[in-house]
Amino acid sequence: MVAAQALAALLAIASPLLVRAQVVPSEPSPGTVSNAGSTCRVTWQADPASKTDWKTMAIQLMSGDNLEMAHITTITSNQDGTKDGAFEYKCPEVTPNSAIYFYQFSSPAVPDHTWTTRFTIASDSGATTPPANAVQPDGDKVPWGVGNLVDASTAVAPPPWVTTDGGSSTSSNSTSSAKPSSTSSLASSTSSKMVPVSSAKALVNSTGTSSATDSSTTNAALNLSPKLWFGAVGAFAFAALL
Questions:
Q1: HEC sequence for 68-135
Q2: What is the pLDDT confidence band of residue 104, given thresholds at 50, 70 and 90?
Q3: Quick one: signal sequence residues (predicted)?
Q4: pLDDT tens digits, residue range 125-136?
């Protein structure tokens, strides 16, 4: 009886962690080049774990490195991330025209953000320049740079659930931060790596728009893989039976 109760308790603790999921961006993909003035397309796969968490989803155009992300503009703020979807809009004129741009997805009900890979916004004629930086501040060889809208007056501020406090900003529902785990990947214009779904501070860019810091309520336990969780549950259950 005691063993059964112990196993039930462990499964109750582990189950929410095993089903924890996120919206998964699909487009733009590595190597995508979109000319200013053409149609920019963003697609995503729904969060399979919840029908409410991503019901209201915002998408921001971003630049910067993997830890100091700079908000450029919010392209949409009322998408339904509980369903597979797509959003199209007119690609803005930006400077520089380089492979340094990516999208950030967020929801007022979820402390974690998620990101696309880096892609290129070229000039209306297709002209581009190399990223200003070849290496991330942490040494990772992922090119990056800081971009802005040519017309800063058209910039849309970050979604309202992102609040600014003393020069840095956090998701309004965040309570703590989690460091990127060793299994997280980083956004890149040359590979399928993505920016880590983890702690990442965003900066105010030269357009003067406000910014967002990604925070997470996850802790070290949430970074464990399902296999490790099942192993831990099994070990405790076996011990309880002895």
A1: EEEEEEEEEEEECCCCCEEEEEECCCEECCCCCEEEEEEECCEEEEEECCCEEEECCCCCCCCCCECC
A2: very high
A3: 1-21
A4: 999 999 999 999
Which tens digit of pLDDT belongs to each residue from 53-86? 999 999 999 999 999 999 999 999 999 999 999 9
CB atoms under 10 Å from CB of 54, counted, come to 26
Tokens of 175: 């309570």
- Rounded to two decimals, the pTM is 0.67
Q: What is the pLDDT of residue 161?
A: 81
Interatomic CA distance for residues 214 and 106, integer angstroms:
9
Euclidean distance between CA atoms 214 and 177, whole angstroms: 8
Q: Report the alpha-carbon distance of residue 145 to residue 72 in Å, rounded.
A: 12
Cα–Cα distance, 152 to 240 (Å, whole number)? 63
- How far is residue 56's CA from residue 79's CA, in Å, rounded to a whole number? 6
Distance CA 99, CA 118 (A): 6
Length of the chain measured in residues: 242
Higher pLDDT, 202 or 86: 86
